[in-house]
Specification:
Elements: E1 2-10, H1 16-24, E2 42-48, E3 52-58, H2 71-82, E4 86-92, H3 97-106, E5 113-118, H4 125-136, E6 143-146, H5 155-165, H6 183-198, E7 208-216, E8 221-229, H7 232-239, H8 244-261, E9 265-273, H9 281-286
Parallel strand pairs: 1-3, 1-4, 4-5, 5-6, 8-9
Antiparallel strand pairs: 2-3, 7-8
The structure holds guanosine-5'-diphosphate and magnesium ion.
Length: about 290
Amino acid sequence: MKSGFVNIFGKPNAGKSTLLNALVGEKLAIVSSKVQTTRHRIKAFLTKPGEYQIIFSDTPGIIEPKYKLHERMMQNVKSALEDADVALLLADATKDVNETNEMFQGLRLNVPSILVLNKTDKLKVNKIEELRSAFSQPSSYKKIIDVSALTHKNLDTLLSAIIELLPGGEAFYNEEELTDMPTKFFVSEMIREKVYELFSEEIPYQTAVIINEFKEKETLIKIQADIIVHRESQKAILLGEGGKMIKQLGTSARKEIEKFLQQKIFLQLFIKVKPKWRDNDLQLKEYGY
Ligand code: GDP
Ligand code: MG
């Protein structure tokens, strides 16, 4: 039996959440084209009884260009990476691979790492080959693998490479468990994802979602959630004319949650104004940050 921790690192938008979802086959990390949607570290488990257990972590986009300038922050990134048994260093192959590669190389990691070139569904074969050879020498990567998290291209190859690098050991978690986060957390993330999809500018970044009620009834699950905003004006935008927007938000969130839970739900959403919730330690704790 092999088991261990695998952290997925990369710049915001490289496709970390999409890759995590594709590898574990569940929609565990919310995906959005807007950056910084992942505020929490999510652990997701992939277990083949008697063979392996991989504990994947999706990380908020902690590797940002500006980090390059700060020695100490780079140290933090490095130690977070070395916390794992295997590091997946994810780069968006359609842009800034060089910059990402330089950052990864600059870390001088003491953990086996795989350079994953993502979004290669958008590239021609010769361009992929070009990238692969550009980064194969000199390099500290154990492997360079081109994938598409979106179309699942080469994910089998990636999985085999990860398993090969895992240390021997017993499973850390029960084999039927998928994640260390409660169902409620995923439900609130799915509502937040819809806020990202429907609203622009500052709204998504200034919104928190809390689940107040999660009750399993005979034929459905009743869920009541609060959407917390800073200002009355934001509440008005979320509501929309005659409640049009909140209705649309509720419908699309409900469909998503039903798909995830494989069960009918009744979803009730309230919008609450709490000025400066982001600066308030107590409230942040209450909302799980
Ligand atoms: P993260 O910020 O690193 O977690 O990135 P996300 O997983 O949220 O993905 C950012 C965007 O890139 C989303 O719009 C994804 O649909 C898109 N994306 C992710 N992987 C791929 C891929 O393999 N191919 C293409 N074409 N798009 C992808
Ligand atoms: Mg993400």
